[in-house]
Amino acid sequence: MIADRARFRHAKKIERLAGYRVPDLAFHPAMLETITSRFNFDMLDAAIREQLLQFFDDFLRCKCKNSPLCGCPEKKFAKKVIELRENGLDHRQIAGALSDEYGIEIFPADVLSFLEESVHVLEAISDVARLQGRTELAKKTDEHIRLIER
Length: 150
Fold this sequence. Notes:
A two-stranded antiparallel sheet has the order 1-2. It is built from seven helices and two strands, in the order E-H-H-H-H-H-E-H-H. It has one domain (2-149). Helix 5 (91-102) packs across helix 6 and helix 6 runs antiparallel to helix 7 (135-149). The longest helix has 24 residues, at 108-131. The protein has helices spanning 11-18, 29-36, 46-59, 72-86, 91-102, 108-131, 135-149, and strands at residues 7-8, 104-105. It is elongated and about 55 Å long. It is mainly alpha-helical. The two termini are 22 Å apart.
């Protein structure tokens, strides 16, 4: 999944403030636990703090009992990548937008690979929907494919 490849650009600063080693992977359980625990965001410089708070707001807010280790953050991140593509950004621009907005570094090739995989999954969903007579779902899926492939 795409979330497995996302890294925090400022992971070393987060690690220093936490006082213990954490992996630089943004969605690694240890990183999620660190930034959702008693982490003092005020000790970060303003730009990094804003990026982390935006990350928290966009991906870590859910009502699941096991939050943040429930899987919702990863799903929300994947949805964000697809939404950015559907809004017209290419894989390089998506990687840049994620870096600017959240301080997340991800290789453009990984974004492109994820988008290609997503199209294949959507094509399968569309085929199954048609076989089951669910034409509305098939149309919605086809629209998502069209927006991703343009």
